[in-house]
Automatic annotation (TrEMBL), chains A, B:
Classification via PANTHER family: HTH-TYPE TRANSCRIPTIONAL REGULATOR RUTR, TRANSCRIPTIONAL REGULATORY PROTEIN
Source taxonomy: Bacteria, Bacillati, Actinomycetota, Actinomycetes, Streptosporangiales
InterPro entries registered for this protein in UniProt: Homeodomain-like_sf, HTH-type_TetR-like_transc_reg, HTH_TetR, Tet_transcr_reg_TetR-rel_C_sf, TetR_C_16
Pfam family name, one: TetR_N
Keywords: DNA-binding
Domain HTH tetR-type: 18-78
Protein name, per record: TetR family transcriptional regulator
Origin: domain of life: Bacteria
């Protein structure tokens, strides 16, 4: 194949480069905002970025992986949840509370999550996207794995969401300065009750 | 006293008129936003509105009353909390959960609260004002009346705040459509445990 036979590309459109990855993420943010999480597809994101869907799968494995990378979330629920669910059932509340408090204790891990929460509070598109992602990637999976009614998973999520919001956004004291283990002791029995009743 | 001896006033500044009340509320919103809830005073609000502090007390009883009226909140915590606290101790969780869910079920009661929550999430001044009001007017009072550590009151508040946010802003289903009594049954034991341990 000669150089002339190669398709013409815009500068920086070399597949597999760091730049292509950035283009996919920019396309993903646009598509997720426009269509929401449920209706967005890897194919649609690839088309928007002008790349092959296989390349998107190669970089990010799944739509969930693209979303997490696009929002700069510190972890992919599909990777983390099986480990949390797999341990002893009578300590699942403790594992969930400790995981969430530990993960969000690092500012660089917490800030993208807080930023999306903030945007979602004042923006209809963002709240729809967040609702669909939370439901599909987190709440439905845990509720199904534990065979509990979805509403119990939702109030457990509301407890932890409320605590993180009061700790990091409203900064209520002493909650904002409390150490992780004190909070695990107070909160774990609540989450445990919701998830085992 | 002759008409000429009366002090000159700007039009609409007649003490006791509906217009004066509106001026006090406009002044209150300005002062609370600038100084926060703790540092704002009835005297400062009266000065901003150009009225006597006694008139502000006459209309609104207290700084708390002015704040609630200025933010269009549906109730004054100082009026409501004693009744909730006074009942049987073993049902206080149930009374709190049912009160909050019933109060927020009416859109006209809920909307000013949701509006301030939204503003607080994205505005440093508003979040400080809300933090101080919540702490002074609600959390400290209940924690003191029940002799519980403040952090337990804060996680109980975080639970209910999270549920209201998921129900009315994020609109997670089935939580958003669940009836009050179903939610009371799930949530009351949590609040009860925090407030009696």
């Amino acid at each position: 194949m000669t150089e002339q036979a190669a398709p013409r590309r815009r500068p920086g459109r070399r597949p597999g480069s760091a730049d292509t990855r950035g283009q996919v993420l920019a396309a993903a943010r646009k598509i997720f905002a426009e269509k929401g999480y449920d209706k967005a597809t890897v194919r649609g994101i690839a088309a928007e970025a002008g790349v092959d869907p296989a390349l998107v799968h190669h970089y990010f494995s799944s739509k969930e992986g693209v979303f997490v990378a696009a929002m700069q979330f510190p972890m992919v629920p599909a990777d983390v949840l099986p480990k949390i669910i797999a341990g002893p059932g009578e300590q699942i509340g403790e594992r969930i509370v400790r995981f969430l408090l530990t993960m969000t204790s690092a500012p660089e891990a917490r800030e993208p999550i807080v930023a999306l929460m903030r945007t979602a509070m004042v923006n209809e598109q963002a709240v729809g996207m967040l609702r669909e992602f939370i439901t599909d990637a987190i709440l439905s999976r845990v509720a199904q794995a534990l065979s509990i009614p979805p509403i119990r998973m939702e109030v457990a999520f509301a407890q932890m969401f409320g605590v993180l919001m009061m700790r990091y956004i409203v900064e209520l004291e002493p909650l904002a300065s409390a150490d992780t283990e004190e909070l695990v002791e107070i909160l774990a029995p609540t989450v445990q009750r919701y998830l085992t009743a």
